[in-house]
Amino acid sequence: MENTAEAPTGERRTSEHLDTDEQRAFRLKAREYMAANLPPRIPGQPANSFEDLELVALDRQIQKKLYDGGLGGYVGITVPEEYGGLGLDRRFEDIFFEEAEPYRLPWHYGNAVVIVLPCLLAHGTEEQKKKYIPRILSGEHLWAQLLSEPSGGSDLAGVLTRAEKRGDEWVLNGSKVWTSGGHVSDMGLCLARSDPTVRKHAGLTMFLVDMHQPGMSVHPIRLVRGGSDFCQEFLDDVIVPDCDVLGDVNDGWTVARTQLNSERAGMARGWHYGLRRAEASAHIEISRRYARLAEELGVSGDADARQLIGEAIVLDAVYDLTSKRAATGARNGALPPTIGMVTSLLSARTSIDRTALMSALAGPVGVAGSPGGDGPDIGMDRVVTHRIGGGTLEMQLNLVSERHLGLPREPGSDRDVPFNQLRHNATPKLAG
Amino acid sequence: MENTAEAPTGERRTSEHLDTDEQRAFRLKAREYMAANLPPRIPGQPANSFEDLELVALDRQIQKKLYDGGLGGYVGITVPEEYGGLGLDRRFEDIFFEEAEPYRLPWHYGNAVVIVLPCLLAHGTEEQKKKYIPRILSGEHLWAQLLSEPSGGSDLAGVLTRAEKRGDEWVLNGSKVWTSGGHVSDMGLCLARSDPTVRKHAGLTMFLVDMHQPGMSVHPIRLVRGGSDFCQEFLDDVIVPDCDVLGDVNDGWTVARTQLNSERAGMARGWHYGLRRAEASAHIEISRRYARLAEELGVSGDADARQLIGEAIVLDAVYDLTSKRAATGARNGALPPTIGMVTSLLSARTSIDRTALMSALAGPVGVAGSPGGDGPDIGMDRVVTHRIGGGTLEMQLNLVSERHLGLPREPGSDRDVPFNQLRHNATPKLAG
Amino acid sequence: MDVELNEDQTMLQEMTRRFLEDRSPIAALRRLVDGGEGFDREVWRQAAELGWVALFVPEENGGIAESAQGVADAAIVAEELGRVVFSGPFLSTCVVAFAIAQSGSEAQRAEWLPGLAAGETLASWCFAGPGTKAGVRAGSVSASRRGDGHVLDGIAAYAEYAEAADLLLVTAQGVQGLSQFVLPAGTAGITVEPMDAMDLGRSLARVRFEGVVAGPEALLGDAGKADEAFERQLQAALVLHCAETVGVTDRAFEFTLEWVNERHAFGRPIGSYQALKHRLADHVMQLEGAKAAAAHAARAVQAGAPDAAIAVSVAKSQCGRSATEIIRDCLQMHGGIGLTWEHDIHFYLRRAVSNEMLWGSPAVHHERLSRLAGI
Amino acid sequence: MDVELNEDQTMLQEMTRRFLEDRSPIAALRRLVDGGEGFDREVWRQAAELGWVALFVPEENGGIAESAQGVADAAIVAEELGRVVFSGPFLSTCVVAFAIAQSGSEAQRAEWLPGLAAGETLASWCFAGPGTKAGVRAGSVSASRRGDGHVLDGIAAYAEYAEAADLLLVTAQGVQGLSQFVLPAGTAGITVEPMDAMDLGRSLARVRFEGVVAGPEALLGDAGKADEAFERQLQAALVLHCAETVGVTDRAFEFTLEWVNERHAFGRPIGSYQALKHRLADHVMQLEGAKAAAAHAARAVQAGAPDAAIAVSVAKSQCGRSATEIIRDCLQMHGGIGLTWEHDIHFYLRRAVSNEMLWGSPAVHHERLSRLAGI
């Protein structure tokens, strides 16, 4: 639902009538340059799929084109000029996305611009900002997040990967997992334990890690359905120079919080800027899939099938309307920023519920079919209905109840104990 | 489902062929006496409804008849002779219930025989057993459980009702609630706090309380739908002589555990002995209600309505089969005694689910209808679908997960703190 | 509900809330029910002075409808009514005023609208049949031509406040299509039979039409051509209905949150237990879904957007189902006290279940959505 | 599953479990799938030696069916098969053996049963149509009289292990009613088209019949009178199917319980978190319901009880729905690792979803139950 490009709206709505002269000039420049240089947005084309190396390569080119054409790359418009951006205000960004609607944008840079860039801006040294931000905007560096570990995905502050200081560099050992695009990334934002003798949040440090080094081995994970764009990394004496510590040593959790908040804010906004259409103007559109499916299954006239389809239409529309309302409300202050957590939870619930409805609709047709047909996909959707991105459902429920509703936290048992006195899980190998 | 009498099975199955001579003699005596003295079992008649004073009076008579006829009253067969029972083994009890199938039994004595009697047998002094047990079996004493309090129904060990020693008697003050039949009971089993300075489980004492005394005021509770057979009691200097302390002073939690376990065992067995038909032989019978309802609603031919009805049939049958299997399994040791907790949970879930299905089936017809018709009952069932008896759903879920599945308990925060240092809820008045 | 209210709308919301807290809190409903009364006419008249019905009535007929925000503004009022489980003929009177203002002749508008706007004339909307699928289609009353008028026969069920109404708007099926009629309550051949409703704050009735003669002055719009007008009325009604349901849910959820923060069990607030927290998280998620769907429906119907018909059915399904499910569980979280007459929550749950099923149950709207999807 | 097993049955259960742990653990399925193979014929032959199919075959035809416990005993085996997501033609071969033993002529029994009992002959049961409601009715293949035999035309879908089968039992619709035929796999006009199945341990196929000539020797029972025999076969098949599903669920639940006790998050086993505990409590409740329903169905079918038809549909709905719901959430509780190919749980969930829908989806059985309720 969030991960494929939508078709450009037939009738485009822009805010052109509000433009100042300067804005108008920017808009025309963007319009002309995009028309000449960007590939069209193709409905159904994946927004990001790191398995598709051609698409990744295409996005590298698009990012470079946007940068070279003076448009700041993808999301570089509000970035200060000294770091390669345009230093303009948000209004110009809105114009950019209005004009970009018919084109593919370099969505594989989502991690880099939605998560890494805010972390660099908030916690980076001047040297780091000048070195890394322009390379994101120019398309040189794709970034990965080296965050979760096989010993425990939800408990992010419980990372076991060790960072030891040796002279003026750090040596990292351990394993990271659920890294989107680890195998194609140039750099990684990596949280590691620099001091295991203090309580778990206090002994962490964040590192900017060069992914192209011998100690870093990256293995794509095979998921239930086949491939995936997730990877598991094994860090075996990975070297990070002192100058690539982001934020203070042992203060990595502060950076991680920026990282997590940026990810959530990105989700609330619709994750990849400009992936969705403009919010306020949207009408409910019923997916044509349902009519086609009902036809194919021969159940168009069945009262019970029509119930299931009606319910699915409600699910889709409610998800769509809720996330658009959340985005608007978070932007104008009518809703708290935590509303993004609610949207994220709804996204998970919606996919669980929709797969159940489709499975009930298809019955046996959804579990076995002609080779190459899409029957068994409907059944398999029930198997893979839960999501890895955005945390487990349990973590989302905790977040919504504690942060959004303000309910009391569980009495914590591990927050004040030195990390090396806690029990830790084993570190399974997930990649086959 | 559990609270109305079922019709006697058309074709009765007994274990007559297994009888010894002595058993055969007992069977024939019971058969003859019951035929002459007991009223018939009327399908749909409430098993117990303390609001129905005539039915309560009838059960008092039935209990007396069973006692006078040398059948030991309801469930007195295995009780030792010195306490008014027959001192026979369980086989005779089975025979009693086989023969009693066509008749009404004094089900309002359920509390007394399922819960109070085991507590007296396990913890009573010789004097208490000789005084109270015969009066239960002869029909003289109806008993109530004075257990829950308005300050917190789930946290049974958190009772606030105070018991103070004055000379050789105790003075009780406080309030109890959710007492079935409090207004018609002669005696009550009452848990009170005799020492608030120790941790909460350690300062409790169990009392045998005369309900007919001035300090005890009993108020029926009006529930959402109208009346109820629940009461709230206000104890205002209620007097209990020393000899009516059950178990040791400050050891009331031990007695309460027997009480709770007896209640649960009763539920696992089908609560009121003999209320249900013999277990192993039972076939699934589809309630005639569904066909009648479908006919009345004019939806017999609707595919979606037929789905809802089919689902309801599954719910009913699964509940029935599961509770019968649990009873058999608990009896023959194939299942642990905690299986009763699972049945109890299923009972709650089944009623929630069934009311939802019926509500969906009836649509608007279930929320408004002709005065006196049963339309709005279907809607109201959704309002009152949760149950008070057997603890809240949350407690049932805790019990099943901790006792039956053996999952770790929540880290407790109140178990080791002196009771008077804990925060307590206010004591609302629930009776109007 | 909507995250983009303008200043006037925010004021309307605050004013309505203050008025209701003062004149019609939930305790007032309890008094009305215990006293066996339906609703408080004095409160209704005062409410009308605040412009609740006037939102749908043009200025020349005593209203304030020039704001062009009629439906969206009325939805704001309806949401507040839900928060106190208001008892009164808001929905029916508004829809009838809307219908007359949109389709009425000048004479009809002049005759009826001023009284409706002023709260002096009460109206009921009669269209739904008596069965399980009632609520989105008219047709259980038939209209046959006689002379220059019509004769009406049949039964309309679930008519709100028909017992108290001065005026009935009847939608009837004729050979050419739907027709609508505006009839004084006392018209010969009309019998109003009160229904027994689980929602104690909503008067419902069956209205029986037996050979009712409706002259040309009673005909609203053109004979046999009311299908579109009816759909517009239905959409407006559903917007108000959904907004009310959101208010009901929002308020019950709000006081349940307070309760779980305050009530302790085993030494901790019950709201600190993860099982309750997770259920509450799911509930707020569904509630946000209901708010988003209801707000969108209000905007779509207000604007006459192409997805208005879809939007109201999406909202009706989402608001109805989530209300019942959320408040049912909120009641559960109150423990035994939630089941007592003395606690307010049953009034909320009664309205939620009732609203879920009236004006088209979820099943009816799912079917409608399948149809709108071209299936 | 059943709480009243006799000594022989307990022994059968233990023997089966030991055999499967040794010869066909879940790791074996992983190897078969990675190797692109369907099932292990050697394991199947050894299993047959243990008497799995012989349970349905009379002694004179090489079986052990005198125990009169055929269905109930086979259900014990099926439950164990579920626990390891066994890949092999157990269900189809048993049902065909049951059918031939019950309805076959002496010649047919002598010809086919010894091979079936010995595990040398594999059989597939062909009856279900290809649509969404398939699984409890036959009729997608038609039989027309020609001479002293029949000609068969049509498609049977979801036929288990048809690709490997030596023998097909076809249920076909004629003008007078259902007829059944036993045909060697190579009979002219039969085409087997493998289906792409989400359950990686179950081979399914579409079997196409084009002008297939079935002589009198192929006819099982009387022409046009197989309705009752078919219902009996269906009941027996559903008993085994449900028992298998219970085994699948039971085992997945078991290792999930181990996992939540062992896996720590935030310093505590994840199984100490109330939200998970409550979900697991609901799951064990549904699982107990499935066990009770499946056990009752086995007993009812074994005994030919009057509620046997109801019992199998109740069991099928309960077992199917609870399996998917429980294992889906068990996968959820495993976190990301549950989604990896390397973890076993997806094999369990694949079979659960697949079993929920094959042999009649819950919807199909709900409809059937309404019919059996006289509605």
List strands and helices in order, with pairings:
The complex is a heterotetramer, with 2 copies of chain A (432 residues) and 2 copies of chain C (375 residues).
Chain A: H1 21-37, H2 53-68, H3 90-100, H4 110-123, H5 126-137, E1 143-146, E2 162-166, E3 169-180, E4 187-193, E5 204-210, E6 216-220, E7 230-241, E8 245-246, H6 252-269, H7 288-297, H8 303-332, H9 339-362, E9 368-369, H10 375-383, H11 393-404
Parallel strand pairs in A: 1-4
Antiparallel strand pairs in A: 2-3, 3-7, 4-5, 5-8, 6-7
Helix pairs in contact in A: 1-3, 4-5, 4-6, 6-9, 8-9, 9-10, 9-11
Chain C: H1 7-23, H2 26-34, H3 41-49, H4 70-83, H5 90-103, H6 106-118, E1 123-126, E2 141-146, E3 149-160, E4 167-173, E5 178-184, E6 190-194, E7 196-197, E8 204-214, E9 219-220, H7 227-262, E10 264-265, E11 268-269, H8 274-303, H9 308-333, H10 345-357, H11 362-372
Parallel strand pairs in C: 1-4
Antiparallel strand pairs in C: 2-3, 3-8, 4-5, 5-9, 6-8, 10-11
Quick structural summary:
The complex is a heterotetramer, with two copies of chain A (432 residues) and two copies of chain C (375 residues). Helices cover 40% and strands 13% of the residues of chain A.
